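User: I'm writing a short report section on ligand binding and want a predicted complex to refer to. Could you take this sequence and F0G and write out the structure as tokens? A short remark afterwards would be nice.
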Amino acid sequence: FENRRDNIWKYKEFLPVNADNRVSLDEGGTPFCKCEKIGKELGVDLYVKVEGSNPTGSFKDRGMSVGTTKAVDLGVNMVGCASTGNTSASLSAYAARAGLKCAVVLPSGKVALGKLAQAMFHGAKVFAIDGNFDDALKTITELALDGELYLLNSINPFRLEGQKTIGFELVHDLGWESPDRVILPVGNAGNISAIWKGITEFRDAGYIKDTPMMTGIQAVNSAPIANAVKAGEDTVTPVENPDTIATAIRIGAPVSSVKAMRAIKESNGTAETVTDDEILDAQKYLARTEGIGVEPASAASIAGLKKLVENGDVDKGERVVCIVTGHVLKDPNVAIDACEDPTPVSSDPNEIRNVIRTL
Ligand code: F0G
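Assistant: Sure. The structure tokens for the complex follow:
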């Protein structure tokens, strides 16, 4: 392979599309930050994979690069998705790059501002549905089955093929070793399935021997998979009316729940729930302790790690990789609401001096 900082196409031998015709915005090769301070406090060897550094600010770009490459290969002219925000932001940009028309269906009033702005600004036709993400996915799927558009939600296997490169990269980042555990937020459950696929492909290719325990975190009122895992059940019962401040993972009927359950089981992993308050605390903690700004859903991975450590489910000294999935600016309202307003001052520097000396 070439340098790990190169984009996802450094792994083109593992991607089942024609890389010569790739639709790419140089996605992947994201920062991999060791978090000494939080790691020390929690008693683990902690690394964070910063997916907010992708072109549109979330991990979705990896999947959309491969997904739109396939769309172009198939000769379609219209792509579409349902989304809690990031998928639509990413698809809208990649569709523009590829010269494809794009339609997205969003849950009205429940999409963070940055994501909505991106989807609109890159030129998708944006529809707001009076319902949640699960309703939006049903509607756009009907249009896809009627042949109106090529669906690029994570039910499309080419999306997962792109996102499995997170699994490749984190092994590469660690110098061709597996961590003990990978922790990530789970919504529609595509990403945990994709990362596990990448990890097992690298194991089967002989690049690593061990595999990490795949650990999914959900918001307490949007937790069909974590509920099933904690109850020791194999089947996932959908949650009616899912709700959380982490709108990215406000999903009641994950489309990849079977694959996700398999990933958790095969990897000897687990799942946990966190409250909105725990998510917001973790978001601020990561931003102010390590300088890494993430959106609320992404902070669920840190909140989940903290809880698993407290419960004794994570062993001391474990090497843990948390996937932080989207950038803090995706949801500026949550970030602003979490802080005090700027202090008004005159142009007299003494006013500032008096305050900063008390910090
Ligand atoms: N984190 C962020 C920031 C997300 O946007 C999503 C999913 C997830 C985590 C969960 O990933 O669905 O593969 O389990 N967002 C989708 C969207 C649903 O429409 O943008 P998942």
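A remark for your report: The radius of gyration is 20 Å. Residues 335 and 341 are 11 Å apart (CA to CA).
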